[in-house]
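Quick question about two entries, pasted in order.
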Amino acid sequence: MRRVEHVMGFPVSLRVDDEDVPERAADAVFAWLREVDARFSPFRADSEVCRLDRGESFRTSDDLREVLALCEEYRAATGGAFDARLPGRGLDPCAVVKGWSVQRAAGLLTAAGARRFCLNAGGDVVAAGGPWRVGIRHPEHADRLCAVLDITDAAVATSARYERGDHIIDGRTGAPATGLLSLTVVAPTLTEADPVATAAFALGPEGVTWAAARAGCEVFAVDAERRVLRSPGLPVVESGRGAVA
């Protein structure tokens, strides 16, 4: 089974290698992601996130409370470098919502009987079974890879400047985080990998050590001086053509 749809502002591709998984399992995945976009987008005036940010009185959902708790966990763990409530900006939990929701979608596939699948949401990946090969894009050359990872039952997330410019803000200073060009995290789930990658990027070069010290996380990063930094347990199978040295 293969499916690609545009959800939450980016392409989401699904590949399921199990032959007995019904098509409705993929339907459930994309329906859930569309629901998440409607409920948690900071760009939709009727979303739970925007209503909460405006101070409206309503019973927040268990899901939103879970997301906000994760946001607070990473804010505290980074000394404020990661912050979903930046001064002068509205509440924006997207750095947590993406990984959290895609991992939940992976759970729907597992519940439907899928054992070997790859769910790629805008470059962030949940892979079940394996092994799967996942490339780390060169931060300055879109047609090159820095490395190729070999993962089984794991998730990979990257935060970088190459797609959206200097969009990640260091909450401690209010300025864009520019100490790194890209940072990739491998973790057991995308609920962990995605926010850890964003939080570490916001921290700058010190974020590489911070992320690598978190249980189950491995890191590959390229700093602003184009030096490669990586944790010793990173499951690299090969360096890509044109890798940064």
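Here is the second entry:
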Amino acid sequence: MPTMDAAHAFALDVSHVKDKAALADLLSEACRALGCSWFALSHHVDFLAAPDRGIRIHNYPEEWAHWFDERKLGVTDPVHRASQRSSAGFLWHDMKPLAGERREDEMILGEALRHGIGDGLTVPAHIPGDAHGSVSFAWKPGIAANADALQFARMIGGAAFDAARQIGNPALARIAPRLTDRQRECLIWAAKGEPVWKIGLILGLSPDTVREHLRNARQRYEANGGITLTVRALYDGDISFEDIAKR
């Protein structure tokens, strides 16, 4: 099973990839290290209806990919549904409590088996403002995914997905924080529901200064209100849900 050093080497290599082919080569190497046959890095979207909405890199049989797309399974596939309720990743043979059960799930998994795709594992990719996504590795039928493989996939999955997003949208690398530190602090407290006067007390600012920081933040995002500003700042990563939730 791959080591921590192997995961670090993968993360270093993947940070230098320039195109889908190079990333696919690295994911193929990860497959060989894991002893599995298949990989799939994908946003969970309907690629036939919206091919530009996400990125997908895989080595699944083309017949399976065609069957999958024809049935618009990008969102409803049981593996994808389970990943939307997980942050740490999971083995497919443990995913039913996460995915819930739908009548068509057994048919989907049976069709995958028919195409030579047996057990596997998935590491979710949840990025505010982005469609859900994941990185999966799968074995031929008769071979079970295991906890050691999942641990390695967890170590490399985030780096692989970030690289794919950069390839799909190079402008992401040029996005810098839009808010100053003070604007960010004021916005976080406003998103918590605190009034301007209380934000001023917390931060040692006058209410007028707080209003000015929030007004400038709205201008930076071209937002016409506090809710729009909060959502856009979450999407860009200027603030996080954890910032808002913690007291």
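Reply: Residues 4-172 form a domain with the Beta-Lactamase fold (CATH 3.30.450.80). The mean pLDDT is 91. Hope that helps.
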